[in-house]
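Two proteins were folded this term; both appear here.
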Amino acid sequence: MASCPGSTTRFRRDATSESIINAIFALNHSVADTEYTRRTLVVRLEADRSIREQLTDTVVEWKRGYQLAVERAWGVCYTRSDVQQLAYDEVRARTDLGSQHAVLATHQAAEAIKEYVDAPGDDWPARPEFSTPPVSYDTRTMTLFEDGAVSLTTTGRRVRCRLSLPSESPSYPERYLESDEWESAKSTLRYRDGDFYLYVGFRKPKPAVEPPSDDATVLGVNLGVETLAVTSTARFFPIGELNHRWREFTDRREGLVETDTRSARRTLTEARARFDRHARNRLHVVANGVVAEATAYQCDVVAFGDLDAVVETLPTATEFTEWAFETLYEFVSYKAAERGVAVVQVNPEYTTQRCTECGFTHPQNRDLERNHFTCLKCGHQQHDGYNAAKNVAFRCIRRGPLSSSGVGATYCALQSGRVTPDGELVPHPKTVSADAGRNG
């Protein structure tokens, strides 16, 4: 229940549907929260002048506390516990933040520093700076009430205001606000375009995925530099637009690094955040497409090649390529789990060189410049990524020529039907749409 314990949440509705900026965002990507699926509901706050002043003061003090923690920890540490131990006393002494908000400020600073450490590309040589970082709230500093109000801790008194929701009923946000499955979690307060918005976090335990049966069907996924993902059902997800944006960002980054002023550092921080948001949104679209393909073709397993091994086989792969692979795999994993589909990684050795028709394996079967596969033995031709995706799926099948002890499956999912490594094809039932997954 997304409210106080024992309460039944009912939220006041009004006609301001535009107040819902983006009803649902993505999974919170914290490694520490791998047991939960997360969502974020974005809602405008109905705040009078007095409340707005309290919230504004809190944002100002939060920025000071956050930046103090970054300055103290930059180049020293970036785990939450270490940054808290290092910077908490100074944040409490030099700001008006309460004890719990001081803790949360040090945690947010740790997350920001870690993002810089983990970000693809060269690290920025100076500490991150933000004009208005979001204020973090947890269950100690935020309470959702059954009358549609929210109580927030500020630097002064605790304030209470309403969440502005659309008038239609039942509204999409109510799926989370009134759900028995989802509970409130870490949230953030942001100021934008003259209004305050609360990014209300929700979470629920990830569903348990049953081990696949011996007659399971596997959807193979091959990852690449030019085509991000190709499935064994012949669905292609290009990455050209993201690669282009990454090159634009890196070119701009070089100029800003050379300028090396406070304004340049802030501009780079904002540019990196914009690129990260865009890239993650696009990867969510791809992940949704992969999971939709698995669902449409009634697959029990989605198989990727081992990510580290795949990157090693791609001579033109960049740090961004590696980050995109890892992020896509993470997104597919949690989205598939919600549908009871397992996601695994298998040994990708020779999957790009082996012919799926006759089994002949040779490096020259593959034309890297044309992304084309032509078997030197039987003459079979097709897109090299599509050929590799089928081989990745076969790696999950114990009794196949590319046997694996990892997953006991029988079939590889193709657009035309389910096939065994021996070539036995079982046509898909009529319930599977011939156009499943063709768009996107």
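Next, the second protein.
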Amino acid sequence: MNQHPLVIVCGPTGSGKSALALAIARRFTGEVVNCDSVQIYRHFDIGAAKTPPEERAGVPHHLIDLAEPGEVFTAGDYARLGRQTLREIAGRGRLPVVAGGTGFYLRALLHGLFDGPPRNDVLRRSLFAREARRPRALHKLLARWDTAAAARIHRNDTAKLARALEVILTQKQSLTELFQRGRDPLTGFQALWLGLNPPRLALYERLDARARRMFAEDGIVEETRAILARGYPADAKPFESLGYAQALACIRGEMTLEQAIAATQMFTRRYAKRQWTWFRREPGIEWLSGFGTDEALQQQALSRVSEFLAHP
């Protein structure tokens, strides 16, 4: 191959991406590269569903536990470190297998990000205040100026909406135009995209069971207390993620355990739906029907990767 092969395993949360990536890496002398924005942070293990070291079968895993919870870690940081990691793996003659459901990180890794303006804290506070006064006002404003960007960003993701509007207002151009102008595509690699597409109801059942297990058996509330006890602030970015936000509410007495479980289940199902929508827009994904933990699906994927490596 003129370009080094790269396999990407994507799909909604709970679909078995880590298991499939591990199976591919084991078969084809590969190394797994994380593409989940919560697994980047140290100490956030249960809610992030990190594969424990003892279950990695000796396969190297990268871009996990990179940052302290209080640090700012951006998609640009991920793209820079991710590209460096891919080249190091390729330099060792091994197959990089990227696995994760953070679509924006994947897009940054493969297509690059434009060099946006620095934060404007005064403007940002004004935008947050506007959203507090009129919920969903930022999404409506973004839709008026950049429909494509509004379609990509969820109406409840205030941080991303504020950043998008901040860029538009300071640069006097739509975010979509700026993205296209500033792209810096990854070079030297040829990618095979494998997307996991399990039956929706079956996935929702698994997600509901996983949320209950996180609280009732795995101890996500205790893990959250331990992270706070280390001195990390409750407003640190990873505490906004699914499971941890609800665990914090339990600790504060704002939710009962059952309410936290129910809320985590509901928001996780919604998140999975948004991930499906995001990846459906990505061209070139080869969708596999089922879970990445299914043996039959793994064999199908391994055959496809073998074909890809032999005939790119």
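DSSP finds 13 helices and six strands in the chain. The two ends are 7 Å apart (CA to CA). These notes refer to the second protein only.
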